[in-house]
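Late entry, evening session. Most of the bench is empty. Finally got around to the prediction I had been postponing all week. Sequence below, unchanged from the version circulated by S.P.
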Amino acid sequence: MKHGQISSKELTDFIRERATIEEVYARSMTKLAKSAGNFSQLGTFAPVWDVFKTSTEKLASCHLELVRKLQELIKDVQKYVDDQAKVHKKTKEEVASTNGAVQTIQTTGVALQKSKENYNAKTVDQERLRKEGATQREVDKAGVKAKKATEAYKGLVEKYATAKSEFEQKMAETAQKFQNIEESHIVHMKDIIQSYAQSVDETHVQIGEVHTEFLGNMENTSVESLILKLAESKGTGKERPGAKPRKRKTYAFPGQNSFYSSSDSEDEDEPRKFRVEIKPVAPNNGTHQSRATIDELKASIGNISLSPPTTVRQFLDYIYLEFFTLAIYSTLYGVNVPYPLLLVKFPGLCGLSNQVRPFSPPKTLSNASLSLAAPLARAESSSSLSSTASLSASNTPTVGTSRGPSPVTLASQDALPIAVAFTESVNAYFKGADPTKCIVKITGDMTLSFPMGIIKVFTSNPSPAVLTFKLKSTSKLEQILPNQTLLFSDPSQSDTNTKDFWFNMQALTSYLRKASEQNPAASYYNVDILKYQVSSNGIQSTPLNLAVYWKCTPTTTDLRLDYRYNPESMLCPGPLSNVQVLVPVDGEVINMQSLPNAVWNSELNKSLWKLSDISEKSDNEGSGSLRAKFELSDGPSTPTTLAVQFMSEGSTLSGVDMELLGVGYRLSLNKKRFATGRYMADC
């Protein structure tokens, strides 16, 4: 109940603070309206200030009305706080008896326990005297004491049962009262919030009506009407004065031989009228615009180059031109343009800021619905499973060496140490902002590492223990290609989540002997055991979701890359390290602005971002954006495919694992990692 009172007071403070903010804003708008009324009343633009003044005053009134509603709501909340305190006080008085019941059952319980112990002691004492052959008087005396203890114990048992019944009844009633109070409190708080939200919503509707009225007034304020008002206020009459011969007036520019003349001899009886009409195209019954029309639109908007405004006047011109461009777009193609989204912290990226981020792929998405045509080739890994030549019986498996500490001397009776490494490569191709177009391929390699001393053990023992292991958590593997030269397996195994393998020990010994002969100084020898391909579920299987947006004009190129860390793709989510993004940009870049900072390589015409580790503990839980604006001397640029690289230690995307079976060997190290293969994004 105390927390309920605190919440009520905090809600009062919140609404009061919101009312203060609205009041300050309303005063500022009133001040701005007065300023608009004091602006210059000369020239053709003067009547427009009246429209601004009226609209701004109405906006101020809308916010003042919200202040009034919020203040009334604060009174209601305060009244509820007072009533709530009265209810709490009354409830405390009503449940006071429950506290007594609690104390009664506690004291009765303690007394009952002592009486029970006394009863047991007296009964035992009486029985002991009887067995030891004590006098009848002593036995009778002990019997009297046992009887008293029995009666006392019986009385306390009955008293405790009564206290327990009363306690349970009181507690149930009290708990129900508390629950009723809390339910009533929550309902009342929700009603207050509903009133608050309704007041704010009504204000927003009123503000929308004021803006609509403002736009209507501006549409009705034509160029012709403004010129006419100026003529009526400054004109000397409607009668045309007598015509007089007019001379040609010459305007000469210093240092020039030629001149330009302005003639007044043209017929001016009829005023010139200029009319601009934008006609909407006929509605298209199809679902797609013609390619030519869209290209023309892109060209028309793309040719408007705007620099960030540095003065108030330029700022107003900037906004006007953006509104004009989008008005053309809206009228021609019937698209509703969200004008407020034009104003962006970075103005050159206004065309990119209102894109919808695509990182909510449907759960029911199936790879079967995707087209695995040409783009798949671009997402292939260099370790693709399409070729099994390196694992065929006629080829030697990949045997490498790794630098490590000198191994201890191994005896034939020791459990021989073996290390395993799982390395996976994730390849992905992201197309625009559509998650259904993401193509993913994940491959993996399993490598065993043998210490140098194991070769001597194998060669000195004609029948070394067979090295057997179980590949676990294989349900996500859609293809497994073992090294057929070294490994055996039973194809009839029915468990889809595990698969057993055992080595051809003679072949393993032979390969390790050859490896030691080729590199006798090595401490360890690595052998590729098997390759596998992981079943993927589109964008849901990628550890870093990407969406790229380009805006290309003849003079500038704007780029935004949205990314989101996807822990669901990993069995044990870990940080992505060494994150780098490489973006080629043509069009002769002369200047680059980026956020966060990137490095531009003018020789390769590429920009490079190097990011810190990305994980759930990063800002925004690993979501963010890279932005850049490129100034060009030979634009426009052509949107290209960007590349991303990263790696993660300690986990895999498949979750596959390995367990040694049998005796004679022990697993000294189990290393897991994954990294990017070809990880690309197109617009």
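Two things to note before I forget:
Confidence is low (pLDDT under 50) at residues 245-255, 257-344, 346-399, 401-409.
DSSP finds ten helices and 20 strands in the chain.
Will write this up properly tomorrow.
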